[in-house]
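quick one before i forget lol
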Amino acid sequence: MQVPQTVAPAAPIDPARGHADLTRWLRRLARVFDLDAMRREPIDAAAVVHYYEQNHGAYRRHHSAEGAVHMALNPGGRFDPAGFAGPLERIEARWRADAGRAGGSPRDVLELAFGQGYNLAYLVPRHAGMRFQGIDLTPAHVALARERLAALGPAAAARVQLVQGDFHHLPQADASIDEAFCIESMCHAFDLPRALAEVARVLRPGGTLTLFDGYLPRPLEALQPDEALAVELVARGLAVGRMQTVAALLEAAHAAGLELAGMHALDREVMPNLARLERLTGAVIRWPWFARRALARRPAARGRNVLAGCLMRTTFGMGLLSYREVVLRKPGAGAGTAVAASPAGVEGGR
């Protein structure tokens, strides 16, 4: 099997224009926030929970009325909320392809960090022969997702088991899962090797882990000071302690016994969503004096979210960050040819 490995740059922003945009945003944000203090703020598990608890209403009002807490994929270049199903459509397409080669679809599927339940509510009715499990760190997410899945009816809800917990310590038994996926939440891992080792433990031979997330193509230390500041502020705005590099992800996966089965850069597909968020959050800080007063009345995590919204389009457009779909496979029955997790495999095509 030939493994798809498309790692093209984002819809590019001219470097000179990108640095001008970055400088403009950082100056505007500095009039509203203490950027140095935010850069130094520690992020722990409690901060991640607080972020999602304080932002779940804002996600519904300003991001996705359906409760998606990830980016929409819009290959046509215009934002369309139907694109929130884009990552799931890509997962389903691979399931169909794998079923044709291996003779069967996944039986047991695990979502890591299921959020408000959007992904499971989409998949469960479409795959009657599958059993689904989910784990999420945030108590409010568990309640929201259970309510949402209950609305699908007793038969569908009976095929889903949700637990509150930490994906560094999965409750699933060894070799009990065919497919695991995590959309924009593995970035919250405080111990990436441990988290990936846990997934490898619960996967059956030939099982896969699919990740959608933003990554650093180059180490933070290789960036210019203003570039590094912008990336760190994006991370703080999303309650991420430190953005992961592609190389670190693949190194940790290799150590956990997972092989790279495919990698795709989806920067162009997320740019319409990032441009929309930039417009929304840019309006919040248009008048700094008003923004300071308004944000002072909001939960702290909602205020920090403005940082990410203002900076993501530029940082992704400059190639400082890259949105990737990464498919990792546990060797064994049904496994196809894998790409070695080596430096050549990391950047192939860039």
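fyi The CA atoms of residues 37 and 278 lie 23 Å apart.
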